[in-house]
Records
---
Amino acid sequence: MAQPNNFGFGEDEAMLRDSARRWFEDHYPPERLHTLVAADSDPHRANEAAWAREDWAAIAELGWAAACVPEAAGGAGLSFVAALGLAEEAGRAGYPGPLEATLAATAVLNACGDAAGSALGEIAAGRAYGVAVAGLEGIVDGSTDVAVQDGRLTGRAAWVQDARKVERFVVAARGDDGLGLYAVDAAADGVAVVPDAIVDLTRDQATLLFAGCDATELAAPGQGHAALETALPALLALVAADMVGAGEWLLQTTAEYARTRQQFDRPLGFFQAIKHPLVNVMIAIDRARSLTWNAGCAVDHEPADALRFARMAKSEASDMAGFAASRAVQFHGGIGFTWECYVHMFFKRQLHSQVLLGDGRHQRAKLAELLIDAA
């Protein structure tokens, strides 16, 4: 099936993205974000999941988390590119809540078939979900250290995003007949959430320890690997979209600083050493955005090519993230390295996203394998 015009981004998707941008501009200006996640600069501060829980209720009421939940389960039933629009705006705002984790869980649940209907209905009702489907190397490849027996999980799942902000997890676990997917309550007996120390102030990451906890089957043993393969392009594209949004914030903030900061009686942006690299950042963001939307459209319309396109998008976005973040810090001069400058929040978010699910080098290696296998 050929891709539609504008990556399938229609009127409904555009309205959703625009409403998200306005909401984030009103509720998450950088001043509030800094107060929320960066109020304490002490390097020995407690490892806390800083976010405004009450804002999740507002987001759920707006229907963002349920954007890609099928109508039969109570959602809006929009195409996957609607989720990309939300992820890009969340990245632009540095939103510290579990929106993207829930969108990722929705993608996995949609790949599970009818058995996931109840879980999708919970997301439509406003329940935040997370995914614990990456292997111990941080890659979604079907490997897992979690085992299932008689409907109970044991083992550990690493690299779980926003683990202290969600109510339920979608967990990959291996049984006698192969890999399966299961829903687990975050507060269930036998579930321990062990926080990781990460550089990103806007996110929370943890390792989950399972000690015989009850689980609800979403994909039977032997069927989980296929569901993860189906969902992987969406997971990669969501992270890429977040980096595109954060990169856009860094670019626009740095460009505004270059227009107003005076050096040698001229705006900083007058000098070629500043304006030329900023143009290169803009080009890098546009490349990453185009590839990301292409990948999202493929999830909807060209599933056979979706993984290839998603790896291209994640590779380009990861490289762009490091480039845009470093230019923003350097072009803010001495203040750019301070805690009080808002740039560091987005710099750290980009560094985290850059390696999440595999950095650019990893994605290019996987792309090479795909192309060689197809030759």
---
Amino acid sequence: MICDIHVHIGRNVPPFVGGSDAVADMVARARLHGIERQCISSLGNTGYLVNPTLDEVREANDHVLEAVAAYPDTLLGFCYLNPRHGEAALAELDRCLRHRGMVGIKLWIACKATDPLVDPILERAAALGVPVLQHAWLKTVGQMEFESTPADVAAMGRRHPRATIIMAHLMGAGYRGILDIAPVPNVLIDTSGGDPEAGVVEFAVRHLGAERVLFGSDAPGRSYGVQLGKVLAAQLTAAERDLILFGNAERILRR
């Protein structure tokens, strides 16, 4: 079995090839690659929203809830939040997780991971025992104003040692980003971001341990098969590969 910890849907996202139902298409294509579970979130239904309104966040999460209801044995929902909404963000968190069965939280680029606005969300996540998938990237040029770096995520982990934080985008973090989070045991990393590059997954396992690396494709922005290649072609033991492909996700999500 394989669990993909990082997948997106959106009402504006077209199917990979033809058809009219992008979610059904993603489920079918994932299964062709042996991916039986996908953790899905939406960053907005009218395009990726840097600073979405509360209504836009709710609509995005409603689409995730619809998709999970249609494929309850395959899809697991992550609640997208904008920390700038304050108490309303916590109310949306409760709506999606406590009352509607979502299993995690997704934070993107409305706030940096170092911003105190994210702290109430991390505190609630720790209390509920659910993971937070935090976008991060380390760029030489083009870093967005409120886009977190791996060092920012490491700081978040130190502030919230009881929270389980999954830093997105191994290939966007690179070797330096791996080392930034290495001393913070509650920060894990997913394998998404960019194309396969020899040695990066092995470097992450060497410095973090296989227990802190999870498979993520970032589909549909990247293909399932190419992203799986990062793990399947890496020089890993069978036990390490199993942890990355499904064991760690099963443990964190308490399946």
---
Amino acid sequence: MAVFSIPPFAERCREAANEAWQASFEHPFVVALMDGSLDAERFRFYQMQDARYLEAYADTCSLISVRYDNPEAKMWFIEGARLAIVVERQLHQEYGRQLGYGPVDIASLSLSPNNRAYQNHLIASVQTASLLEAVSALAPCPWLYADIGRYMEAKLGFVPDEHPYADWLKTYADPAFVTYTNELLVHLQKLADSHDTPELHDRAVEAFVISARYEFMFWEQAWQMQDWPQKAVSDPATDNEGTG
């Protein structure tokens, strides 16, 4: 099994986010996903929202690459954007065929409140904060998924092909995700070393923790099949009827 290599600053971030991190492993969506009891409608909701989230992840990687002077680091984040769009899309397309949705459905999807908030957090981090904060905000997504993938692999052992979510489980248990995470954490540590101010480190840790919380909320919004409150999406013209 692939092993994480966690540098000191990443370890500090991970410890600060421990409550939300562990809660993801215990969330009923994740538990049901692992044992195969998750109903298809909840998984469909999750997959479609996740497809749109990955667009924001790719945008964040692209914007981070622009802020790097180092060509190797720049190319690494460009490749991260490509992976989010191309490689992950393959998984979504396969489940789309099974669950009855396609690119047009994803493009016209209304983002859940939690999904929109998470995306806004990522984009704001890279547009208005330091590079260290931006990479800190990005890191929980691949790291947590790789961590959950390793956990599921250890719990289940061999994933049978008849498991309804076998492709998902195998994707995130792939050692390549641990390798990607390890490389990302090296970039994070280099930024922390080159921006060695306590105040900036504190803000970067906070950005990481917020993303870890949004990761938990992403499971929750799929479990609840979250929508906007009806009052918030009602027609303003209808609301004003009868007022003088």
